[in-house]
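Re-run requested by the PI after the first attempt was lost when the workstation crashed. Everything re-entered from the original request form. Ligand of interest: glutamine.
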Amino acid sequence: MKAAVIVFPGSNCDRDVAVALERVAGTKPLMLWHRETEVPSDLDLIVVPGGFSYGDYLRSGAMAAHSPVMAGVKAAADKGVRVLGICNGFQILTESHLLPGALMRNRDLKFICKDVHLTVESADSDFTRGYADGQVVRYPVAHHDGNFFADDETLAAIEDAGQVAFRYCQPDGTVDADANINGSRNNIAGLFNRDRTVLGLMPHPERLIDQHLGGTDGVPMFKSLLEALS
Ligand SMILES: NC(=O)CC[C@H](N)C(=O)O
């Protein structure tokens, strides 16, 4: 599996995801700086990592979506290269229109930094095949703009096409308003594109790949990608 991690000024999870890829998938990713205009054509996976690209100025992800490297990322995504956007990466993918909807300020206007429970809504993708449908996982979140919004029509289309990958839930898997940490519509924490070749999610699977760091619930995501793309 040949992977690249995009690095923006203000990215801060680029190295975490590089370590996750290297440890779990056994492959050292290429680190691609935001000014890069050439995205190699032989990539299997591009990761848009978490952080505060361009200081979150204007709107989280808005400036990064117009950076030189994103034209290449969009072209690669159009050709079916798998793209994983984590947290700020998810924001960048919605701002780039690779995923529908938008990520707004958290409902309570506070930065949320804690572990949350999520249901795996579909294990039928190259990102989630290592999980079971409906499995409850625990990932950390760290964001101020994680409140997923889509208008009624877009939301219905997302649900009809089975594009929801993860929802915020209670530890027993109940998806309800109390589990909805940031006000996201339909408790959406992660979303696929229609072909399930692009995944964006607010929680951080790359931070849970080692028991010493709090757990290993993120490992199946990187293993799934390795199995699908090798
Ligand atoms: N951890 C992150 O990627 C943070 C994302 C974004 N800057 C926010 O706070 O919403």
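Saved to the shared folder this time. Residues 50-52, 56, 60, 87-88, 142-146 surround glutamine (CB under 6 Å).
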